[in-house]
Amino acid sequence: MKTKAMNQKKKKDLIFCLLVLLVPMVQFAIFYVGVNVNSFVMVFQKYEINEETLRGSYKFQGFAHLFDNFKWMFTTIRNEGLFLSALKNSFIAFFVVTLVGITLALVFSLYISKKMPGSGLFRALLFAPSILSAMVTVLIFRSFVEEVFPTVFHMKEGLYANLDTRFGTILFYNVWIGFGTQVLMYSGAMSGIDPSITEAAKLDGAKPFREFFSITLPLIYPTIQTFLITGVANLFLNQINLVAFEGMDTLGRFMTVGYYLFRGVERATKAEFLLYATYGVSLTLIAAPLTLLTRWALDKFGPSVE
Amino acid sequence: MKKTWTKVLALLCAATACAPIAGCGGGGDNGIDNTKTQLFVFNYDGGVGHKWLDAVVARFEADFAETEFTEGKKGVQIHQRNDRTSIEQLVAKMSTSREEVFFAENVNYYNCIAEGAFLDITDIMEKPLTEYGETESIVDKLYPDQKDFYQASNGRYYAMPHAQSPTLITYDADLFDKHFLFFDQEGELTKRSTDEGKSYGADNLPGTYDDGLPATYEEFYTLCDTMIGRGIAPMTWSGMYEFYMTRFSAQLRADFDGAEADVAYNLNGTMSKLVDTIDEDGNVTYKDPVTIVDNTNGYEIFSSASYYYTFKFFEDIYTNEYYFSKSFNTSVSHTDAQRNFLLSRFSSKVQDIGMLVEGLYWVNESSSAFTDMESYANSSLQERNLRIMPLPKATEAQVGEQTTVVDSLNQMAFISAYIDEDKKELAKTFLRYCETQKSLEEFVQTTNLTRNFKVDYSNIYDDLAPYTQSIIDFLGGVRYLMPASDNPIFQKNYTALADDYQMGTISDPDPMIAIKSGKTAEQLFNAFRTKYNANTWKDIL
Amino acid sequence: MKIFKKKSKGIPVFMIVSFAVLLAYALSLIIPLIWSGYTSLKDWIAYAEDPVGLPKKWKDWHWDNYKAIFKAFKGKKEIAATGQFVNVGIPTMLLNSVWYAFGTSACCTLVSLLVGYVVARFNFKFCGWIYAIVIFQMIIPAVGTMPSELRMATNLHLYNTVYGMLFMKSYVSGLYFLSFYAALKVIPKDYTEAAYLDGAGNFSVMVKIMFPMVTGVITSVFLLNFIAFWNDYQTPILYMPSFPTLSYGLYHCTQGSFMDNVPYRLGACMMLALPLLLLFLVCQKKLLGNVSLGGLK
Predict the structure, then answer these.
(1) For B171-202, how does the pLDDT look when each residue is reduced to its tens digit (9 = 90+)?
(2) Of B116, B239, B242, the CB nearest to A249
(3) Number of structural domains, chain C?
(4) In this structure, is residue A229 part of a structural domain?
(5) Which of A109, A242, B137, B467 could make a disulfide contact with A186, Cβ separation 3.0–4.6 Å?
(6) Do C95 and B92 touch (CB under 8 A)?
(7) Residue A157: which of B328, B493, B496 has the nearest Cβ?
């Protein structure tokens, strides 16, 4: 009798879930699967031009040449070295922008959630750049570091013009501009912590340091986890606003993988597109397990409330 | 308070719901005259602008006011769309877009043909323009190398050239005059532009437009050193868009390779100036015998001495600081660099600048600056003695050789392959109309630029601005190349081989920035030369 | 422990250092804004001569720069029936911006919320798969799909329509899905069990019990989406040429030959940034109220 009721409930749940998922599923099928399915097939295709009509078309490589596009990709990587430096930059950007960003955002959030002097204003200011489009902030930022810095500090050239400080300047900009969302979320989560818990801890004689690591951090951990997983998932997509800085013009050794692919695809010929499709699929094969691994590791080794 | 928010929410919902109605608003008065045949034209509104199109459209509508292009409709109404939609977006939307005739830039011609986006226009290209009283066809007006480029391998034409856009040096001839910066026969800088006894310049012919200007890189350095000695910053360029210098380097390379320059794009031909060795003093010995390049050894193009000499030229400019202080400032856009150049001679607070590296079309981008300069210093484009500097040669031996120029923007005119059958005749007639002598001359008069055809401008030459005259002088005698080919290897490895990008595959994309980052010309050249070898080349075929 | 050493007044050194850093941050935002503000009032010649100093005389403050920028600030709208492009003014673009940003962020937020809800609260096998798929689609460099996306939108008659736009933006956003998932997952089962026993259906449990518990997350995700879509100019250009938005207008304006000098460029930035910033600073208490992402409320 009980199992029947359970089954009944389960059936209802299933129908409910499917109904709720209907729109997203249709959308996903059309604008994700439908649009992207080509890139998967392209990995094993070649491009041919009809000599009469000059029209080009993609055709199956044939089993003898199945992995030719991968060979092409590896040769390109080896000979250009550009992709490898982009890979390096992507990791640097991840560590600097994501990790430094999260750390600083936590510090600021702690300050704000403790309602220290000016915390309301700071919270608003930290969020303010997020409401502007990158086009606007990059333009103001770059004009400022290029024109005002050299004059005020008597430097020969601006921080962006100077090739030794250019990448650092780009990273700085990304950290500088990116606090908004994180501080908003962390401070929100922190102020959501039941005061009685921290009070109890204080009465038990817990020092602030211990309070932070034993109570605050574990309680907002899901939020941090979300940002970290997103950061890893974005590892090969992050363009660190290079498009706003440079448009589609090349940046050589300052690019990240995300920019490398974006820029490459923008200018690729139909024949060259196969190369970028191969890059895309290969990188996904690396990033997907990496992201799931990160999630697993964060679940397993994360802090818990004592 | 909650109520207020609910109200705001309701208003927002209402706005979303009303949007479709608002979107259709104004649809009634759309300016379409249904008694006439409609033609939709897209024009890339960049350095060329759209004044030329306004002019030609007005004349076309008047000239064909009585013609029936579609049954029952007399006359033509042309609608323009002038913006900066990229060619990729145009092609992606081609099947649904209403534009029928296009004037676009950065067109990768063969890739677009392969996409099936362009209409075959061979008939209007090859038929002489007799209906306008001319004997030549449009094909006859092309430079020889251009003819090879536009005629696809099946013998058909799918597009025609639009404006000329090489990246060159503009110099301020008034400033040169003021400081006696023209060479005399002895190689000293003592002359004015109007003086007798000037050196013969890069073409090594007396009495031509380039007399007194540097013939070689060595003379160019002498000129720059002298300018610095007289308090002038020799040259400037856009710090924000580094590709201007990349394009300039492609220009220098093409001129060095001369008649062999097209091998860099079609990977098919003889290369006689491939580097064998470079000694300690930078002297280059070429490979002997000459190398025949084809698809199997296309990587040989990267050891062309043109790369080495161009890098060396940039290295010398950088290390000797032959540039204006803001040339690397990345907040200085191309138009800012133009403005600094224009202003410098009149402002006591900005150092005088002698030369500007820019696309030919820059005077059009700066038209509002010229207007401002007119009230500031009474110096419009017409009044200023700005001129194109012929390219100096890398070596003494090359002085006197014909100059080779490579296009920077690949601007083309074409018709959509998706055009309605009954509109084809009108579109083709309009495109032909734009290529008549009258229209080509009008283009020069409205834009101060030249269309990419070999045209005799002697009728209008005298009334043109000195700048435009110098374009006609210089480009009249050059070999004009389009920097692309239909070679499948070139198309498959566009990023590795195309002028704008190839440098970026080994270093910073702009050779000047690569030099700035501390690399020597020789290091850069060696990186290029060893990039591909017989083995790795196979993998990219 | 050293960093938390207390000072006499009871404020940890750590907090003082934080205050200093935050103050520096605030200044780093305000100073460039002030500089851009007065630079946008110079003429280009004065800027070329001295990019840093203040304009000296009263007549050197070119307030008319803004008049010129305002005039150049217009969008182009395609009339769907004829394919003509006509200029439209700020009011039309504002209306388009409002419905576009509001409608699409509502759709995107709702869809991410619904999917997050299903995956977090139900134990079907496919829930795990959905989680994996969302992660997967977050990672794939979905670049260069523009032509096929356009083709798809055109074939399905979604191109250049409001409902088409709203449907196209009804996608699951990775970060926000994860946020909803994390927030909904931690709510104990007891809350819903009681309601189910009282005979409440799945829908009313979701809407009446669960969603109110995560309003903070919903508000903040909506807000972030709203900002992103407000600033988005790419989509309107490509997919809805009949509905130019303000961001599209700015893009159009910066791309045109008009924005050819630094004061004008900065002026256009200020014109777009200042009203938004002021509006935000005035309403920030309401907007940023008590929002959180993934934490307990």
Answers:
(1) 999 999 999 999 999 999 999 988 899 999 99
(2) B242
(3) 2
(4) yes
(5) A109
(6) no
(7) B328
